[in-house]
Each structure stands twice: as C-alpha cells, then as structure tokens.
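Q: Got a minute? One more chain.
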Amino acid sequence: MRALRLSKRVTAVDARVASPSADGGARFSKRLTEEWLFRATLYNSLRAWVAARRSLWLRVPRVLEADPRELRIDYERLDGWTPLRNVIRDRAFERHSTDALRRTFWTIGAALEELHRHTRRIHGDFDFDNILVKPSEGKVAFIDFTPPVYARFRDYNRADPYLDIATFILVVRAKYPPHRLYLALRSRLRAFALAFMEGYFRADPAKYDASALERALGEVLERTYLGESFAGRYLRRTRLFRIDDLMPGT
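A: Always. Here it is, folded:
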C-alpha cells in the first residue's frame, strides 16, 4: 500500500512536467534499479532544473517524461555539448585557449554556487563526467542527479556544499589512470582550479573557509572511489595536491 501511495505521488509530479520537447528534439533515458532511487533522481532533477531557470550560468536538462512503473526518466538531450572529461583528458585541452578555459572553470564555479543557493542541496557526485560545456553558450550544464553508489544515506544531498567543491578539485587533479597521472601535473590545472573557486565565491571571497575545504577533501578521500584509486593514495602521501594557493582573490 505504501509503495502504491508513493507511485501515485510520483505520477502526480509527472503530470505537471511530462511533455514533449518544444522543438521535438531527441531525448535520452535513464532507468533506475530501485523505486527510491527513481524518486530521488526525479525530484533532484526537477529541483535542479527549476534552479537553472533562475540562474545566469547553470543549465540542466529538462525532464520530459517519468514512468514510475518502468523506473525510467526521459531527459532532453543536449546536442553539441561536450563532457568536461573530454577537455580535461585531452593533451591540448581540445585546443581551447587558456582564457577560454579559465572562463569555463569560473562559470562552473558560479553555476555550482547557484545550484547550492537555489536548491539548498548539493549535487553529491560532482565529477567532470557530470558537467557538460559548450563555449558558445556562456553556461555549463550539470547532469546525473542520481545518488552515487557511495552515498551512505538517502538525504545525502543535504550535506556540506564543500563536498561538491572538494570532489571537483580532486577529480580535476587526480582522476586519471595510473599510466596517465602525468596529466594531473599540468601547471594550468591549478590556474583553472583557482578560477573555479573564484567563480563559486564571486560575490564574497571572504566566505571561503580553507579548513572546511580541508575537511571535505579528507572525507571525499575516505568514503569514495577516489581514495581507493592509485591517484588518491598518491595524493595522500605527497604535496602534489595543495589548497594553500586556491584562496579566491589571491
């Protein structure tokens, strides 16, 4: 009976948001394995999309349809957008200029702050796989609002916003296979990480709390796959990764 009531509530939400895309464009689907994951993903996606409509730098794919029986959510497909992963892992940063890349990372920080402020939630899996960029747009897109496998509690996205900040900095610096760790040593990445921080704290750099970021970094390395990776272990033993020069406004 409880499952039925939950399904009815989700269906009611669907009735308000499910509609074909205005231009008849393509869509992509995501199927979930559990009912609570379906509901959490749907509500997180809707909340983020509403936040994006109020934001200057954030875009989120629109939910076109959600089927509680199939545990399936259909989203608009953002054609022409590139995963940040492709840019970061390219030896030449896909030939984007340093200024363009710095602006992109600043925009990612600004968009993340807008998501936090407008939703009062964190993304929870703020990996470069879940960020799409399109230089001509002047915005960045965030995707995949499903609770990550390492989330230890269902309201994981009410956690400390510094967890998103820490995750992003770590994956930009260290999410590489062992044989490609040299990519994490590229000097421009530190400038881009600083641009990200400046975008996030653009309104008030004094709000930046280095100790909060340190704690969040430790937590991410303790509870996620990053801490189990070669690069994560390497970071723990060296000074490769530092945050003393990531203070906004410096």
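A: The mean pLDDT is 84.
Q: Perfect, thanks.
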